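Section 5: illustrative case.
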């Protein structure tokens, strides 16, 4: 039994974190960010601000002999008006690389979002505590993966033995950018999002810049990718461009070229994989935007529908099939001068047969089982054999 007198409080600093690009001091503690301050200063979109502050792929990485630890955090819970409550965010504990526990933190701030009006409101709440006890004796490496879908301010770290930053594992760093599907959408926990699963299977260190609703080819995101050290880079492009209906075919091609050009300014020879969208039946041949379909709320379900008209493709509106064709064309053109540039059709990760077996529950986002399938497929196609990341 440990008393409060046993606890050692260790300041949380960047050298204890992996997967974050910045650490902001707040009134309560420290807020990990997945975009640097320069990028955040150029952003005016609330959705992106929320997404980048949710620590998908961010984890505390410690070396310690401690058998018990406590982490005080201030989470921000999302509540959607008229929609069943979301479960609390999940923290995953790894000890020497193996799953060793899971927990959540109650309380915290509440962010209420009304999707019909676009309005939001925040109600302040209390700091909560995550506890893990009964850890193995002796020196060990501990990782605490923060909730992938819950903004989390870090307030205090307490242990019953000293901690230091975990040693560099010496693995290649994989930098990934994508949409809510890469962010984690409806994965069960932070280590079971498809990028986290693929990274574990591929034996690499993940930096996940999957940004829910916000993979929109923003130049400041490309600059963040350019300036982030990485041995491997992948860009999953397309679904947000279509479901937000932000551009036409004339603008899309040059925007993709410009995004890749910026990334290449910082990583001229790094293996760079362009991944097109997984299958999403509502947008395969129907342009966006997509919108919530509230007719299923009496059943406790929220679904999405495509609001565009297939006939609008003639005027340059984008569908997923159009995006895939254009991405394949661009990569094929550029690969003549860039031997480290690769293309992966997202339907090889989740296609027609997968959709029949594991349909997208809300017609837009994969569930936990589908995250596992996508992660395993990505690892097999990209990290083994003749895959883009096997060199």
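Designed sequence:
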């Amino acid at each position: 039994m440990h008393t409060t007198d046993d606890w050692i409080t260790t300041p949380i600093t960047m050298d204890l974190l992996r997967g974050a690009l910045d650490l902001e001091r707040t009134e309560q503690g420290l807020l990990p960010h997945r975009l640097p301050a320069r990028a955040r200063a150029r952003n005016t979109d609330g959705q992106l601000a929320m997404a980048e502050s949710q620590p998908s792929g961010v984890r505390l990485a410690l070396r310690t002999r401690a058998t018990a630890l406590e982490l005080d955090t201030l989470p921000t819970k999302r509540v959607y008006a008229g929609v069943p409550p979301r479960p609390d965010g999940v923290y995953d504990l790894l000890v020497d690389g193996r799953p060793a526990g899971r927990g959540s933190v109650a309380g915290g701030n509440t962010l209420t979002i009304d999707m019909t009006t676009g309005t939001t409101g925040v109600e302040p709440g209390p700091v909560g505590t995550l506890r893990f006890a009964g850890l193995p004796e002796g020196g060990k490496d501990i990782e605490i993966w923060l909730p992938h879908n819950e903004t989390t301010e870090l307030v205090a770290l307490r242990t019953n033995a000293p901690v230091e930053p975990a040693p560099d594992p010496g693995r290649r760093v994989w930098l990934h950018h994508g949409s809510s599907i890469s962010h984690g959408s409806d994965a069960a926990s932070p280590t079971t999002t498809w990028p986290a699963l693929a990274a574990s299977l591929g034996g690499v260190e993940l930096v996940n810049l999957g940004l829910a609703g916000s993979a929109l080819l923003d130049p400041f995101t490309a600059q963040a990718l350019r300036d982030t050290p990485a041995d491997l880079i992948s860009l999953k492009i397309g679904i947000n461009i279509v479901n937000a209906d932000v551009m036409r075919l004339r603008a899309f091609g040059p925007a993709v070229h410009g995004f890749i050009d910026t990334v290449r300014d910082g990583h001229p020879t790094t293996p760079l994989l362009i991944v097109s969208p997984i299958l999403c039946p509502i947008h395969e041949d129907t342009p966006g935007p997509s919108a919530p379909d509230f007719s299923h709320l009496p059943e406790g379900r929220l679904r999405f529908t495509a609001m565009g008209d297939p006939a609008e493709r003639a005027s340059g509106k984008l569908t997923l099939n159009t995006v895939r064709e254009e991405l394949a064309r661009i990569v094929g053109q550029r690969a003549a001068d860039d031997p480290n540039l690769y293309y992966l059709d997202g339907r090889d990760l989740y296609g027609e047969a997968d959709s029949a077996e594991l349909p997208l529950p809300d017609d837009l986002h994969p569930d936990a089982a589908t995250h596992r399938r996508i992660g395993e497929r990505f690892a097999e196609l990209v990290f083994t054999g003749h895959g883009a990341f096997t060199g």
